[in-house]
Amino acid sequence: MAEAARATRAKAGPAIHKGLVGLVVDNSAISRVNPETNSLTYYGYPVQDLARHCTFEEVAYLLANGELPSRAQLSRFRRAERALREIDRDHVGVIARFSRAAHPMDTLRTAVSYLGTREVAWGGEKPATDKRRAMALLAKIPTVMATDYRFRDAKRRIRPRDDLSFSENFCYMCFGRKPAPEVARALDTSLILYAEHGFNASTFAARVVASTLSDIYSAVTAAIGALKGPLHGGANEAVMHMLGEIGTPARAEAWIRGAIERKRLIMGFGHRVYRTGDSRVPTMNKCLEDLSAWKGDDRWLRITQTLARVVIAEKGIHPNLDFPSGPAYDLMGFDIDLFTPIFVMSRITGWSAHYLEQIADNRLIRPLSAYTGPPQRKVRPLARR
Ligand code: ACO
User: Fold this and answer.
1) Predicted confidence (pLDDT) per residue in 86-104, tens digit
2) 343/145 Cα distance (integer angstroms)
């Protein structure tokens, strides 16, 4: 259905902006998503250039401070992040009690919320306090995820190291060894690409919570819940399930043509803002190619290439970042249900920046709805109903 028609679907009432399509609801200096030039910039820097020249820590600094760091600033930032990686015994105990069957997005959402119970956090605190909390969230989320990952496998937890980069340390805590440089670099690149993306659903959820002057833990907990859905961050897991269902490159073309015929929603394709392709995809495709060559396994690469070719040709819909990142995470050795939590590990930087930006120039976010229920009527007491 055309977007104009969607906007005016209500018969005689006000225009309905279902899904807030096309609405500009506030200013933001953090990132620019430009569908006309098919580009994404963080504080003015093209994301492809950041992926080429920077580490994830530099980009995390950029999103926290609005500028890329000098050597000395980066070194202080790294030290601060590394010093906060460990979680305390009580927190480990909470994670140990989660059901082994729980999805890691649910355990992560709960563990992040639990962090907010370790101090009085009501909202309205000074920005410096929220910046400290944002740093703690950045540092501790990978530890929470790796701890939960190990416990689910009935393995002992591996404590964080302070001599490893953000990406290396996460792999180390999951697998007990430093990752190959190819894996560390690809993971870092994906974290840079995932870090920030304007008023996407999870960021907007965080800003809605922030706009009530609630605390950052509540905002991030809400954002994690929003990210989990398969139309948003959950798509990278859904992509991998789809690739698993297809199985082999030989089956890919027939499978995708059948899916298009059955009008199936094809995970990892389409985007609310980009119409001619997601600006992050070429960089992530290159990571997928490099990882496939490194592993000597091009099964996922060949399937994704066939799917992209057919869907673009038949439907004019392009892959989004979740399409190459799903199989890339699989080649890095992560279980499928860790893919969306890895997205959290990165997007926490964007959410925190938006939380602070919303609080700095706040107005309660409170849209209207057009009422479609029964007309006003009298309440009949229970005895007469
Ligand atoms: N597969 C099949 N058809 C699609 C797809 C898809 N992945 N995406 C869009 N379309 C179709 C729609 O059915 C619609 O067709 P219609 O006009 O005949 O009804 C048309 O393209 C326009 O799509 P909308 O649904 O209006 O696009 P919207 O902006 O509302 O949704 C969304 C965007 C949710 C991302 C959608 O493309 C989708 O569901 N994609 C699959 C899930 C996915 O990959 N999500 C990840 C998003 S990126 C991220 O979070 C990092």
Assistant:
1) 999 999 999 999 999 999 9
2) 12
Rounded distance from Cα 266 to ligand 1 centre (Å): 8
Q: Is residue 366 part of a domain?
A: no
Same domain assignment for residues 155 and 273: no
Q: Residues 185, 110: one domain?
A: yes
Domain that holds residue 51: 40-229+337-360
What CATH number does residue 84 fall under? 1.10.580.10
Residue 343 domain flag:
yes
Token duo for residue 217: 């833990």
What's the pTM value of the predicted model, to 2 decimals? 0.95
Q: To test ligand 1's pocket by mutation, which of 3, 283, 317 has the most ligand atoms within 8 angstroms of CB? A: 317
Tokens encoding 268: 């990892």
Domain count across the chain: 2
pLDDT in tens, 280-333: 999 999 999 999 999 999 999 999 999 999 999 999 999 999 999 999 999 999
Which tokens in the block code for residue 257? 């043509």
Distances (CA, A) of 72 to 54, 82, 122, 138: 15, 15, 34, 20
